[in-house]
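Archive entry. Fields below.
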Amino acid sequence: MTTPDFDAWHLPGMSVDEVETLEAGDLVCRYPVPTAELLASTVGRLREAGRALAERPVASIVDVVDTVAQRLSDAGDPLYEEAERLVAAATGYSAAMTRLVLDRMTADWRADRLWELLEAELPDPTVLDGFRPVGEDRRARAYGPELAFHAFAGNVPGVAVSSLVRTLLVKTPSLGKLASRQPVLPVLFARAVHAVDAEVGRALAVTYWPGGSHASGWQVLEAADTVIVYGGDEAVAAYRERTPATTRLVVHGPRFSVGLIARQALAGDPTTVAREVAGAVAAFDQHGCVSPHAVWVEETQAVTAVDFAEALAAALADVEEALPRGRLSPGEASAIQQERATAELKGHAPGRSETRVLSGPGTRWTVIYDAEPAFHPSCLNRLVRVHPVGELDEVIGLLAPVGRLLQSVAVAGPDRLRVRLAHRLARIGATRVTTFPRLPWPRPDWHNDGREPVRELLHWVDIETG
Amino acid sequence: MSAPATGLRTELLQLFHDGADSPLPDAEFEAFALRVFARNFETVPAYRAYCVARGRTPATVDAWTGIPAVPTAAFKELPLRDQTADVERVFRTSGTTRGKQRRGEHHVVDLEVYRASLRATFEAFLLPDGVRPRVVSLMPPADVLSDSSLAFMITEVMTAFGAAGSHAFADAGGLDFTALETALAAVEEGPVLLLGTSAAFLHWLDRLEETGARFVLPAGSRLMDTGGFKGRGRRVEPASLRAAYGQRIGIPEWACVNEYGMTELLSQYYDDTLRRRLRAGSPAAEWRPEGEIAGRTRREMTDSMAADPGRAVGGVVRYKRGPGWLRSVAVDPETLDPLPAGTTGLLRHVDLANLYGVIAVQTEDLGHVDGRGLVVEGRAAGAPTRGCSIAMDLLLSEAP
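PREDICTED_STRUCTURE:
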């Protein structure tokens, strides 16, 4: 039995008697058995902590988060080193990718970005601290939920922490259930918050238990007045089923992204756009909901989609040097092998359109050129399809059947084209139309899944006079 | 018959009719494999182009491990078969529980080749003592599930080896537990051979546990199960399943034989336990799974683990063997290069019976191969895709 590397919980003031083991990538973790007593005590302490948190000015909470974010972005800080080591072990990311993800995600938790977020959604963030005038004879104040339960997804590190940060900002205590694949950052964050400011730290409880395996894990949902779920359709359905009808349910379900490349963007040379696409494919090793599965290219005589595929292949080879792809399980590698060989064979089938498979050493990166324009999801880990198209508008029809799962669309081309396409893409379900460089890194105040993640947590109370 | 009557076909059928007991010498297997490869190359256009693109053609390949393998996923996309011949039957994979995902298809040109291969092998591994048992199937017969290669196999086994009273206790509507249990309760003599998927057996065992029923089948009774636990049903370790077979149905652990096959292949692997035991000479009285048998089971477990520590699958290592005309190699997931004997990798199978299809199939199953046979360690794919990024099967079931 290997020595556990990581205790995957932050339950301030609780003593944990019984633990079980979890393997997250290369990390061996311990987690507390979620007995009814443990969870009930945790909820009790969180409620108490919430009463204290409610009296704190939002600016002081921003300062606490900012202090922790500074530590997590300082390469010399032991906390950063710990995060780097543990995240790499759990995700299999290369060292360079781990650092990139940590640096980009922690930037969103710095004070300047937090204020940007609050000001974008609440023009006057002090409505969280007191009643503020709204119009002539009304004042209003915003209140966060009494207790939030978060169920995290395991695809990308950092998203869970952002979720916890948002509930802290609205002065809500939280119980976060970790994803088996990403146990690290929320725990390190919560511990660091507690070290900086115990009063705020007591409002965060983070732990793990295997989904669906412990009845008490479901019962705790009844204690929360807001349940925030990240995950695939099955996970979301399970939470929907078990969350009381009177509880607010905030869902971030399964999503994928794609890219569109206008002929104007290529202007006879595909190299620049190819580099941008490669960067978007490589980020998070393509596991984000913002990661593109496929791109469509408007062909010209000067630059065909095959030319673009070749340029993209060269760009992915370059990116692999600077930002190597992480370690895969045999199953993930196998999926890439199957997809490559199947694409090749399809291309050779009589009556079928041409395919070409361009690939790096081992399974490091893959570009599949497929003359058939229909959308086909990628098995990820840096496998991307390139399709030719006459006009980008044709792609709308191809994506419409899967539109409810579509999130971001990167458009390389003139802005007026982006705007025109944006309306049509919005109609089929996309909530973000962007550029390739921005695709993997949404701004902190983005309308994630079309909503305002801070504002949707709030309820308002009015004072009327006169 | 629609299949071209080539000399190669005749030789292969002769090979199958000679039985699956003895291994084929390396040189003979390789010679056959290269001839089958050459035929596949000539007659399956997409495969030909695939081989040419890789520079691995009959002119350049001289080892069976060098024959280009077709991924199982490709069987969902195009028919990989001899385009000069007609198709006798199309077998389809059982697919996912999500419904719309496309199923893999094996377009079989010549069912006689399948029959000959499966009969010879089944006989060697399940009936080496020459018995003709009453066959009890938990799977619907082939005329009900016409696109299932497993249903075809079971129906063939019933026809070829089944004594009077052989019957399938399932149809399109599902398993008829009552009829099955009534029939088993009424069995007085003669061995029974139970056949079905592990999932179906588990379903039945769960029911037996609820009702508390037990069966004690006559000495010589045996069981064959197959398949993983596809979809969202419960999964149980093979050793636990075998223990349940012993407790509830009275079949000793070594007489529970797991079959490993797939729609894309016409030949199969089996657990070697029953064949080895009966070769060593096991009197009928020793078929009872209690007391001494339990002790023997523990010793078997100890022996296996001593032979190959650290490779436990469900606590016990079970080697599978197949007919001489089926060989496998584990390959590196990153490079697809064949790995040394005993190293775990993705399993690639080379099946001489795929004369009218593609001889080499690359699976997503993890396992290792050495002198003792094949150990299947589980499915490599199905590692859950991470978190809220899209699950492949979800998107596939939505995509047009």
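CURATOR_NOTE: Residues 330-348 of chain A form the longest helix (19 residues).
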